[in-house]
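Subject: sequence -> structure tokens, single chain

Hey, anyone have a minute? Need the predicted structure for the following. Not urgent.
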Amino acid sequence: MPPGNGSTASDRTGTSRIGMLMATMLCVLITAGCGSTSVRTGADPTVCAVFDSLYEGSGFAPRLTIQGKATIDANQNRIRGKIQVDVDSPRHIVFEFTSSILFGSKREDFVFSLVDDTLRIIDRERGEFYEGEEAEAVLRESLEADFAVPAALALALGGHPGCDELDDLDYKLGSGGKLEFSGKHRGRSFRVVFGAGHRRIDDVSWPVFSRDGADQLEVDYRWESDAKGVVRLSEVIMHVESRRWRCKIRSSDTG
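Reply:
Had a minute. Here:
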């Protein structure tokens, strides 16, 4: 709106600021950068919207299914087995695991679901059902994971806290055209790297909070193109260094 037709200096300043930010974001997302490749934005809603949009297109929506093999290393022990993971959303995950070898003189064969922060487990080997805190305790024991497993899985499989929970949200253009966001979640650092071109998530580092404190979850992803050129998730590696815990899921068939 031209001056004199109702606009104010404040309106023009706000419009200019948003326009400059969007132009910078477009430079980062579309080209190799237009001069500056790093912007500090705090809790700017425009950058939050871009962050959310990139997550929505990162390969985990609207639905992800992983079928294959899992290897879990925990406290110098190793568990191997077959796995199927169905992700409708980070708040709706179904996870099936059957160990292929005995672990501590017992076999693991269970299904767990995480729906709206409520964990449920069917232990098919022993004919038991668990829910809530009891289910979390069973899962920690079964996977030798002494941390908040449901929260970690949600973060590893396409979830992230809302922007109102994030501070100091930054982004920068990394090597090879990768786009890296970083900031703080409840005072702890996080990092999310989107790959060049397809903009799938390359790796993330998120704090995982529990009653015992906080651990740092690191996740690496590998994406491969199928015969039709569709990019699919082929491998996920989750590790929590402070707990000496690592889980590798290698897909034999993704959809």
